Amino acid sequence: VEVEYHEEIYRLMTTDGLTQLNNKRYFDEMLDREVARAKRYKRSFSLLVFDIDHFKKINDRFGHLAGDTILRQLGAVLLGRLRVNDVLARIGGEEFALITPEVGVDGAKELAGKINRLISDTRFDFDGTRVDVTVSVGVAEWQAHYEDPSDVYKAADEKMYEAKRTGRGRSVLFTS
To answer: Residue 30: how many CB atoms within 10 A of its CB?
Structure first.
């Protein structure tokens, strides 16, 4: 009983209550672990950072309950289409991150395109009204010269903002 109790406490501490995805705390732990693995075994991984375009407009037009509904729907759509080893997390507000172990830059670029298409092709609804949703995705692959997890996160995050500045609903790839 005590083991189950501690497992449940850990699950609650590492799960986003709204989307039931992993939360920022879990993401940070897994990113640290993946960086350590990449350094130790000279293996690659990629990081995708993305958020919902014009999310504030969704909240302003339909209300915050609509925003919550969209976040839950987006999480459910993505979760069912990832590999077991991938780590998807809601890391804040309408921002998500995806760690893809053993996936290089080409595979990550392809995955980012699939995410863009999947989200734009999905019918998101709130109270019977269709809500158009797109995401901007930044992609970065772990580089040997990076020193810590913040380096790969910063690269992917910068590219996400570039995707927003250059048209939204798209992905931008970090190249060294």
So the answer is: 19
> What is the C-alpha to C-alpha distance for residues 3 and 115, in angstroms, rounded to an integer?
37
Q: What is the pLDDT of residue 176?
A: 67
Spatial separation of the C-alpha atoms in residues 167 and 176, rounded to whole Å: 23
CA–CA distances in Å: residue 120 to residues 15, 39, 132: 26, 36, 7
Question: What pairing do the DSSP bridges indicate for beta strands 87-92 and 124-126?
Answer: unpaired
94 catalytically annotated? yes
User: DSSP character for 138?
Assistant: E
Q: Given 4, 29, 34, 94, which residue is catalytic?
A: 94
What is the predicted pLDDT for the residue at 10? 85
pLDDT at 71: 98
Mean pLDDT by 10 residues, the chain (176 residues): 87 93 97 97 96 97 97 95 96 98 95 96 96 97 95 97 94 85
pTM over 0.85: yes
Residue 106 burial (C-beta neighbours within 10 Å; 0-12, 13-18, 19+): exposed
Q: Other CB atoms closer than 10 Å to residue 77's CB: what's the count?
A: 16
Q: Please check whether residue 164 is in contact with residue 170, taking contact to mean a CB–CB distance below 8 angstroms.
A: no
- How far is residue 123's CA from residue 114's CA, in Å, rounded to a whole number? 16
